[in-house]
Protein 1
Amino acid sequence: MKMIIDDLKQEENKYSLDNIFEFYLKITQTLPEERILLDNKSKEKYSRTTLAKGTTPCLIVKPINKNELEQIVLLANEFKCPFHTISTGKNWGYSDACGLYDNQIIIDLGLMNKILDYNNELGTITVEPGVTQGQVYDFLKEKGDEYWVDATGAGPKTSIIGNIAERGFGHSQNGDRFSNVTDLEVILPSGKFIRTGVSSFENAKCAKTYKWGVGPSIDGLFTQSNLGIITRLTLWLQPKPDDFKVLLFLLKDKESIHPFLDATRKLKMNGTIKSVVHIANSTRMLSMTNFYPWEEMNFCKPLSVSKTQEMLDKSKSSHWFGSIGMYGTKAQIKADVNIIKKTMKDSKSVKKTILIDDNKLSMYGGLLKICNRLGFFKELKPLFNKLTICCELLKGKSPENCVQGALWGLKKENLPKNLSSGDPLDYKAGLYWISPLLPMTGHDLNRMNSAIEPIFHQYGFDMQQTLSMVNGRSLASVLTISFDKRDQTQTKNALLCHDKVFDILFELGYIPYRLGNHSMKYMKLQKKENKEMMNGIKSLLDPNNLFSPNKYIPAEEF
Ligand SMILES: Cc1cc2nc3c(=O)[nH]c(=O)nc-3n(C[C@H](O)[C@H](O)[C@H](O)COP(=O)(O)OP(=O)(O)OC[C@H]3O[C@@H](n4cnc5c(N)ncnc54)[C@H](O)[C@@H]3O)c2cc1C
C-alpha cells in the first residue's frame, strides 16, 4: 500500500493526493480489484491524447451499475477527491479520456452499457452511458429495422451519452442530438439522483416523449457542464422512411460556397431539407481517402494550390463536397430533390449533383470492382468509398473507417498498411477540432475564413473544414488541425495555431459550440453575470467543487 501512495504522490500535483489512499481502501470494499485501476500502464492508457498534452489520473474506477457509481461519488465526497467521468472516453480532438487536470479519479462508465428500454410504438430508446452508437444501430436492425438512430462520424465504438453530454451532432434529421433527448437521470456530485423533464413527478406518463417538463427545463444544465453525471437518457429515433436517397453535390470553386449558403438555407428553414447538410472543403475531403503527399510537397505544408487542384481532379472531386439525406415517400423525395436542384442551379454555385440510393450504390460498386480488376477507373475508388460512407452515415451507421480523416498530418511510412483500428490514438495522431458557430450567411463564412485561414498556413497547417447546417440559421464549422505527435515542432505549432485561431474567433464573435481541454480557458470570457450565476449553481450542487472542476463552469479563481 505504501508503494501505491508513494507512487501516486510522485506525480505532478494539482490536487492533493493525501486522501486518495483512504478513498482507495474504502472503494475496494465496493468494487472488485480488477475494476479499480492504478497501475502505470492503465494510467498511461487513460492519459493518451490527440492534443499536445494529456493529463494523468490518479486512479480509474469502472462501476457496472448505479449503486456502485453512487458509492464512488459518496466516497469521493467523503475524502474530497476530485473526479471526472467518461462514457467511452473517445472525445478525440477535444479531451480524449482525460480530465482537465492530473490526479483526478476517472470514473469510466463504459461497463454501464445496457439498453434499458425500447418503445417501437413511440420510437424511443433508453440507454446507459456505455452504450455505443454501433450497439444501438445493431440493436435496431435486430428489432426489425423500424427506426433509425442518428450517427456521428466518430465510429461505432463511441458513446451516445458522452457525445450528447458534449452536445455533439450527427448527420440525419435528428442530427441535433440534444434536441432529441429527454428524461435524463443524473447523479449529482453530492450523490443524489434526480430525473429531468416530466419525470421529476411520480408516475409521469410522458417521461420519454416530452422534453421540457413543467417548471424550469433543466436538461441543459447537465450537458457541457460539471453539475452531474448522466446515468441514463432517452433518445428519440427516426422512423425508417419509405424511401431514402442521398443527394451529393460538388461546388464549382472555393468561392461558390457563399452563394450556395445564401440560396439553400431557406430550404433548411422550411423543411425541404430535413437532414443536417454536411459540407467538406478540399483538404478535409481529400484527407478522408488520401494521405498527405509529403514527398511531392518537399516535406512542406500546407498543400499548395496546384497540388490541391491536381488531387481534386484525380479523385473527380471539387473544392466543396456536400451531402443531404433525403427521407420520405418516393413522391416526396422526388418533389424535394427537384426543388433543391432548382435552387442550386439558380445559385450558379453547383458543378454537379449525384442522387444515389442503395440500389445504385451496389450497382456502381459491382461495376467498379470489375473495372478495377481490369485496371480501369482505379481513381474512382476513393469517390465510391466516400459515397458509401455518406449513405451509411445518413442511415445511422457510423463508419469504421472514418479515422483516416484524422491522419492527414501523419507520414505514410509511420502508418500501418492496414488502418484496422478506428482510434486515432493508435497512430499517434495529433488532432484539434475547433468548432465555431456562425450565422448561415456567405458573408459570415467569408469574414471568418479570411481571418483564420492565414493563421493555419502561418503555422504550417492546412485549414481542413467542414460546415454543418445544424439548423436553418446556424452553421457549425469544424476546423481540424492535424499533426504528428512524433514531431515536437508540429505539436508545439499546433497548440500555438489553436490558441491564435481561438483568440480571433472570440474577437470576431464566432463562439465555438463546444470546447476541448486546451480551449476550456476561453470560458473565462463569458459575461461576469453569467459566470456568477453558474458559480452559484455549482456551489449549490457540488459544494466541495470535486466533479470535473472548471469544466465549462470556471471557478472564480480559474
Ligand atoms: C474521425 C472523427 C470523426 C468525428 N466525428 C464527430 C461527429 O460527427 N460529431 C461529433 O459530435 N463528434 C465527432 N468526433 C469527436 C468525438 O470523437 C465524438 O464526439 C465522440 O462521440 C466523443 O467521445 P465519447 O462518445 O467517448 O464521449 P466521452 O469521451 O465519454 O465523453 C466526452 C465528455 O463528456 C462528458 N461526459 C461523458 N459522459 C458523461 C456522463 N455520463 N455524464 C456527464 N458528462 C459526461 C465528460 O466531460 C467527457 O469528457 C469525431 C472524432 C473523430 C476522430
Protein 2
Amino acid sequence: MRLSQSSIPERVLGISTTLLFVVIFLGQFIFALYILGLYGISGLAGDFERWNTAAPHGYDKNDITGNIFFGMHMALAAVITIGGPLQLIKGLRNRFRKLHRISGRIYITCAFLISLAGFYLVWVKGSVGGLVGSIFISFNGTLIFICAFYALKKALNKQFSEHQKWAIRLFLVMSGVWFFRVFLMLWLTIFKGPVGFDPIAFQGPALVFLYMLSYLCPILLAEYYFRTVKKSNINKVVGAVLLLIITVGVSIGSFAATMGLWLPNIK
Ligand code: HEM
C-alpha cells in the first residue's frame, strides 16, 4: 500500500505515542509488583515493620488508624497501578465494553479513595519532603479529584470524545507519584548524586522542579497534544520528536528506579 504524504507524520506520531505508553505501562507494572512484593506480602505475613523500608511514616505500632489508612493506600495503589493501563488499551476497551464500564467505575472510585487516604497520610500522619512536598502531593491529589469527576461526568453524559480526554488526564495525574520516582532516579543518574536537594531532609529546589515535572507537565503536554499536535504535519513531527525524547528519559528513569528502588524490595 502506498502511503499518502500526510500519513507518514501521522504514523510517526502514532508510533511515538504508543512507544511512550508502552514504556509507561511496563514501568508501572514493575512498580505494581514492588507494591505487592513489599507492602502486600509483608502485610499478609503480619511483618508491618517492613513497610518502613521505603516509607518512613508507613507503620507505627501506636497509630492503628494511621496504619489502616496506609494499608488502604497501598492496596489501592496496587489496584490502580495495574488497572489504569488496562483501562486505556483500545483493543481491550472495544472488545469488552461492559467490563470497561465496570472497571472504569472501580478505577474512579479508587482514584477518590487513594487521594483521600493520601490527604490523611500527608496532613495527619506526616510524610517526607516537609511542607513544600506536602503541598505538591496535595496539589496532585486535588488534580486527581478534578479529573476523576470529569472523566465520570463525561462518560455518564455519553460525551465519549471528552470522556476519553479526561480519562487520559486522570491516568496522567494518577501516574504522578510514579513519574516522580522515575524523574527523581533520572535526575540522580544524570547528575550522579543528589544535586540541588538535601537527601536527608528531602527538600530543595531540584525537588520543586521534579514535582512540577511529574505532577503538572504530563497534563500540560496532553493539553498541547489535544489542541495543537494534530493541526498540521509539522506539528505532528515536532510532537513525535518531543514524545521520543520523553520516552528516552522515562525509559532511563524507569530502569534506574527498577534497579535502585523496586527490584531490591520485591521478595
Ligand atoms: C494515585 C496514585 C498513588 C499511588 C500509586 C501511590 C503510591 C504510594 C506508595 C507505593 C507509597 C509508599 C512509598 C514507596 O514505597 O514508594 C506511598 C506513600 C505515600 N503516599 Fe501515595 N500514592 C498515590 C497518590 C497519593 C496522593 C494523591 C497522596 C496525597 C494526597 C499520597 C500521599 C502519600 C503519602 C503521604 C505517603 C507516605 C510517605 C511517607 O512515608 O513519608 N499518595 N504512595
